[in-house]
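We now fix the convention by which a protein and its fold are recorded. The integers have meaning only within a learned vocabulary of local backbone shapes. The record below shows the convention in full.
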Amino acid sequence: MARPPRLHGPYNQWTYKVAGRTKTMRISEEQAQLCRAWLRNHKQLKRLVRQMEQLSLRETDRILGAISRR
């Protein structure tokens, strides 16, 4: 007996771009859980990089300001 396809979602999908073209693939719930964890990590990384950039800019301004006051 064939299992009928699931006609109504929810469906898990992974969408990304390659060479300007959008690619989408269906993924299992297990794969979706992995992707969600990876996305959380990516967001945290972006937040940390933004903080590092802000600190770097403040320090650059401080150092250059000190040099120009000599």
Remarks:
- The longest strand covers residues 12-18.
